[in-house]
Amino acid sequence: MNNKWNKIIYKVWTPFYDSLFNRGPFVNGRKIMFDGYPFNSNQKLLFVGVGTGADLAFVQGKNLDITGTDLSPSMINQARKKYPSYNYSIMDAQSLSFSNGTYDYVIANLILSVVPNPLKCLEEILRVTKESGEIWIFDKFSAPDNKYLTIQKCLSMITSLFGTDISVNFEKLMYESSHNLSVYEDVPVWLKGRYRLIKIKK
User: Fold this and answer.
1) pLDDT tens digits, residue range 158-189?
2) Who's near 169: CB < 8 A, 6+ residues apart?
3) What torsion do the CA atoms of 38, 91, 186, 193 make, to the nearest 10 degrees?
4) Given its phi and psi angles, is residue 136 left (phi above 0), alpha (psi -120 to 50 degrees) or beta?
5) What count of other Cβ atoms lies within 10 Å of the Cβ of residue 125?
6) For position 124, what pLDDT does the model report?
7) pLDDT tens digit string along 119-169?
8) Which pTM was predicted?
9) 100 backbone dihedrals φ, ψ, rounded to 5°
10) Alpha helices in 85-195 (DSSP H)
11) Residue 161: its pLDDT value, please?
12) Looking at residue 160, what DSSP letter applies?
């Protein structure tokens, strides 16, 4: 897993991304995430790893200050074509250029399992989130007890060629984080809880 390879693989993925990752359980996870969302007018939302903009459909037409970032220029271009009124930046999720405490909500869907260093990515997400702000995550993680972790790490050597890591452990990330965090929602979505919807208060 490295940024150079991710740029290449996600350029390849771009024409097919929506047909693969914006349907079935992925749409269901996003629907659960945004169902009854508590956003207020003019709040600032950051979509880290916005991809082709699949999440933006759920906030369209709301009076919100929305920014989407992605490492892949082709992905950003797709999102911009579909939702041109938002702000977009080509940016490494492990090194965000925003100031501390900029955003009320940071949505990080299917990104922690993609970046080379998920802990660094999480720390950056937390840094740009306001005090008392929230981070919403929908992603695939290894089992909380690290069951089958060795097997997953071996398989991850294969899946990383396609731009994703199946051995990332969320509980380990939380333990290693330098921030005091409170998980107030943790919902299993698919594959016996490997795909989870997690909401965190900073």
Assistant:
1) 556 566 888 899 999 999 999 888 999 999 99
2) 141, 142, 144, 146, 149
3) 140
4) beta
5) 26
6) 98
7) 999 999 999 999 999 999 999 999 877 655 565 565 555 556 566 888 899
8) 0.91
9) -60, 140
10) 118-128, 149-159, 170-176
11) 53
12) G
